[in-house]
Design a protein that fits this description.
7% strand; three-stranded antiparallel beta sheet; 419 residues; 54% helix; single chain; globular; 18 helices; mainly alpha; 6 strands; binds carboxymethyl coenzyme *A
Length: 419
Amino acid sequence: MCSVVFLDINGCHYKFPVVYGTFYEKAINISQLRENTGIMTFDPGLKNTGIAKSSISFIDGEKGELLYRGYPIEQIINKCSFIETSYLILNGELPNTAQLKCFSEKIKKFNHINKEIYQILDKVPDNYHPMGVLSFLTYVLTSFTNFIQEKDEDMYLHLLAKLPILASLIYRKKVGLPPSYADKNMDYTSNLLKMFFSKSNKSYQHNPIITDTLDKLLILHADHEQNCSTTTVRLLGSAHSGLFSSISAGISALWGKLHGGANQAVIEMLENIVISGGNIKKWIEKAKNKKDPFRLMGFGHRIYKNFDPRAKIAKKIAENLIQELRIVDPILELAKNLEEKALQDPYFVEKKLYPNIDFYSGIIYQAIGIPKDMFTVMFSLGRLPGWMAHWKEIKLNRDPIGRPRQIYIGYKKRNIIHK
Ligand code: CMC
């Protein structure tokens, strides 16, 4: 393994250290590049830039593998709950029984929000998108919790407890239901479903298949290394912004249609395909047409050049749920058909475009009864432990403030001349 590389720049010979990861992925450390050579790198979209050393999750995009703290996603899905996974992601190791109990009990202790939040939400117009409202309310929470006196560890638990409450309130306001409060006797995901769907604050008839499915979907979303929203959270963390405002920014980033917002866009696309007569070939041609901005939503990924392992699991979960609930879902059949046709098409084969997590997650949410504009909110609830672990990591690593450079292509220096 070489520990340095040599670069020839304008006839001069420079030496740069090489940084290695656990699986021997390697990067040239160019932190001294501009200082030593007068030149910098240009990497729009940060496609080739490692911005951090991280030990939270690992993706092998060529093999289609995902690890959380070293554990393969396929094992976590079958052996852990979302709350155990959250502990693992935040703390680095799986909890023992006592640690898990303490973690869960503490979350339950913080299962409430200030009455002012209800009043603020009441004033938010119903036509605002739930993601905007979630981002805003997460930010507003900062004002109502005395974090100066709280330990960091407690702030993580506050958010794990409070974000589902905010999500449920946003949903219930939209559908005209009064708030349903947290039940301390329920586990995390059962409580989430109760807060969403109970008709009054009282009873809620749980369906274990739905609870298990939602728990698994939250796990699939829990972390995904340096994606757009996580990088957003890390950037805010690097400026020493607070946890809640950093997460609020992460929610806004996730909302984007090319990122988490794709789950809503996928279902809308599938519905449009049905409405327009179900001609899959026509839509695939549309996605391939470079003059048309349309893309096959739920397809492609910056890192995966093979199957997204999360999409494989989500597809199985979707099929199982639809079967168990005895739902006839033409959208699931259409999605499977579309996937099959796209994967046979040379355009998608050559560009290594496979279904990603968002291709099937919307179908699952819909079967559970969650409306389309709430899909990305559910993604946020799942991604929360990952965002927080990255925010924590940037503090522990004492990473410098994130501050990229640019290639300025605007006007040269000029003088104001009033006309
Ligand atoms: N449909 C048609 N063509 C596509 C698609 C698609 N879904 N995705 C990529 N391409 C083409 C793209 O046009 C480009 O072609 P060319 O080389 O001829 O210009 C090539 O594939 C490479 O695409 P790119 O945009 O340079 O790749 P990227 O790594 O910058 O973008 C992506 C990744 C996920 C933004 C992109 O694949 C995409 O827009 N997919 C649809 C939106 C989507 O499903 N997003 C969810 C991502 S997974 C969940 C998450 O983590 O947020």
